[in-house]
Request: fold
Amino acid sequence: MSRAGTILRVDLATEKVEKEATSAYVQDFVGGGAIGAKLIWDGVPPDVSGKDPKNMLTFNTGPLTGTLFGNKCEVMAKSPQLANSPVMTAGLGGQFASEMKFAGYDHLAITGKADEPVYLFINDENVEIRDAKHLWGLDTQQTQVRIKEELKDPDVQIACIGLAGENQNVYAMILHDIQNTASREGFGAVMGSKNLKAVAVRGTKGLKAGDPEACKDLWNEFFSEIKEGRGSLFARLSFREGIAAHIGDYGKFRDRGAWGYYESFVAPPMKKEETMADFVTKYKVHNVGCSFCPIQCQQNYNMPGVDTGGGACMFYEGYRYLVKSHDTTLWWRASAKAQRYGIEVNSIANITGWLMLLYEKGLITVEDTDGVPMEWGSEEAVMTVIDKVSKAEGFGKLFVDGAVPAAKVIAGGKGLGLLNQDRNRLSGAWHVGMGSRRTVMLGGPGASRLTRWANQTVFMHPMHTDMEGIIPWYARELGISNEESEKLIQGWASEWTEKQVGDRDAWRPESVRKKGAYLAASENAISACDISGHCDFLSDRGPHFGAQRVGVEETVQWISATTGTLCTKDMLLDAVQRKRLLEIAYNQLCDLSRAEEEVSYVKALDPVPDGYHKGDAIDLERSVEPGAEYCSRRGCDPATGLPLREELERLGLGDVAIRLGPLLAGPAPEAPSPQSAT
Ligand code: SF4
Reply:
């Protein structure tokens, strides 16, 4: 019940299609990326690179996906963004994941490389690998239209790549519909490396609720929270002005914007026509979002003469601040183009901003960028970078394997230290300001989306873009002053933090006490959503938008009601723990050590030279104590960041302990003698 029951495995090289029961995994791993991590742990040798055909691209739904309570899947694979290709995850919403469930599949695991471009068509029981030569070269929207026409079915749900994925650029994303993306880990390049243009799914089976009455009651409760409770504040913001408004029009971020090194940049006051609210009023067609979600937090825009498409807050951030432009036309032009090419908007904006910084400093000239001056805010520069990088043409070729390899060549390597990056991963716009300096890695080995988010939340939480952005919005909605609104939102953050770690102040950026415990609690809350298929925007996880109330306690009730099988808080949190320890252990075997991760941030440790954050600096010493606390909460050795043997054994992950072998502290258990094994 509410589980489709099957894991679908497809090998594109041999065209072999296999189906396996999900039931073998659910007791220990529940669903989502926890099962995804297990599939990769069992099936992909750590020395396989992100673009190697042996890499396994997985789409992992949870027990709530396809029900009223959820619609997400976690895409998971070895990422080509880092040289040692650790396992990483990216969420994908929309209708795709629900459709997978309706077709009968909880998980999809794709390995191998097709000889020529193909797309996968999953139509209930029928699984076909179809020719995609005629689709190669099409953009992400054209691809979806053509496949729907070809299959004569407008309801087929498609996740695909554009030119950036075909060219295996490590910032290529997977796009579904107009605005849903698995954007952050270079999974578009993984698809391209498999000659896989798209996955199309059509499911007609639906799902049955285990306990329909309980589902109805729980849904009514959840829905009235969104309609009338605290959650309605976020819902109203999303619906009326779009999430981007809270960043662009309300947040301090608006006029204290920062720029990578960036803190010096202070945006001028915006005119009305430069605000996001104005853009939304003029160009929003309607709200869009994921299946069954009552919030529909994203927008479909149509700007005559430019393009139609979908937008979310991230795009807006990237193209306003990273290239120093407040022209909403440029913001939309650039984002729409990047989405059609299937290149992640913040990464390409970050690359552009970095080139502009080098140009300003005289480290590059037009000779380095195919004759185009990289001037701040220049439309020609912005569009050229998107074109060249996505098509792997001219100087854009240098970025195929990422910004770090490119930065080692461009300007003779002199610009490397100016790159707002974590190894080869460009930081998103949300890292700007103190984010880029405070994102000190405490999480031990493992570079999942989860780790990054959780680490950001350690020193920034609730993120400035959120908290500072929602203060005036909630004040307006509630008819209170900004000061009262700030107090209220901070009270919600303290309420959650006290419940999780017994300290009301652990969320505060300046606080170190209980910070490690707070990090682990934030990870648990996010991961519980991801594993179950619920959207973490709608959860209480370290109150992202300050307002939600529902958390792990409610999630397990939903899982129990939808599956008809009891799921307890301990069971769900143990599944989270298994997922994290599998990721940590696997990435250690990929040689991603904790020390290496920390080194990547050293460049961001100098005090901020000027601007709003002048003088702010990271004190690494202060991270030692929370780092050790985090490790002990996570069941890891503070000295190495590696899982403790006894924790692995408690969770039934003895095979992980055996594979980590001598890397683990403490004596290994004696191997059973042949006699005792019989
Ligand atoms: S709130 Fe979450 S589930 Fe709802 S539309 Fe937005 S991303 Fe999708």
Q: What stands out?
A: Residues 71, 93, 289-290, 293, 295-297, 535, 537-538 surround iron/sulfur cluster (CB under 6 Å). Residues 471 and 486 are 5 Å apart (CA to CA). Residues 255-263, 428-465, 593-604, 674-678 have pLDDT under 50 and may be disordered.
